Amino acid sequence: MNEQLNSKIILWNGCSSSMSRLNVDAIVHPTNEHFERGLNPFTNALYKHAGPELRKTLYNKLKYCPIGSIKITKG
C-alpha cells in the first residue's frame, strides 16, 4: 500500500448532480466507445455541468474510444 498515492486518489460514489461541487483535478468518465449520453446518470450530469465544449470535443474531435483505452480532454 502506498500512503502517498492513496492520499491523492479518492473513489467517489455520490449523487451525480453534486459532482460539480467536487474540488478535483480530474474525473474519470465511465462511458461507451462512442461517448453516448442517456446511458447513465453520471454521463448526463457530466455533460450538463461541463457544457457544450466537452460534447463538441468528444463528438467532433475524439469520436471514438476503444474499450480499455483512455482519452483526455480539458476540464
TrEMBL record:
SUPFAM superfamilies: Macro domain-like. Residues 1-75 form the Macro domain. This is Macro domain-containing protein. It comes from Euroglyphus maynei.
